[in-house]
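From the shared-data thread, chain only:
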Amino acid sequence: MREASQRGLAWAIGDREPFEMLDRVFNREIAKFLTVGAIAAAVDFSALFAASRMMGPTAAFLVAYPAGVITHFLLNKYWTFGCARRDFAKQIVQYAGTVVAAFLVQSAVYAVVVRWSGGNVLLAKACAIPPSTVVCYLLLKLGVFTGRSGTGR
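Structure, as C-alpha cells:
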C-alpha cells in the first residue's frame, strides 16, 4: 500500500515517465518530417539549378519541382511515418489534397503579412511556412500516411 501511494505521489508531483516515451516518439517523428522537408528542398533546388543550365527558367521550374515533391512523398511515407499502405493511387490523391491545403494556408498567411508589413515578401514567406508546415504534417500523419509498417492497411 505504501509503495502504491509513493508512486501516486511521484506522479502527482511531476513524475512524467508515462509521457516520456510519447514525447521521444513524437519529437523523433517531427525531426524526421523537418529533415525530409530540407532534403526535398535541396533536391528541388539542385534539380532547378541543373535544369536551368539547359532550358529557360519556367521550363526548369516545371522539370525540377516534381523531383522535390516525389522525394517528399516517398521519404515521408516510408521513413517519417513508416506507412505500409498499399493503396498508392489513393495516397497520391490524398497527398495532392494535402499539398493544396498547405498551399492555401501559406498563401493566406503570406497575403496578410505582405499587406501588414508593407510588402516585405521575405518576411511574409518566413511567416507563412510554419503554419503550412503544421497543416501538412497533421494531414499527412492523420490521413495520408496512416498504417504503420506491419499493419498493411
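The longest helix spans residues 17-52.
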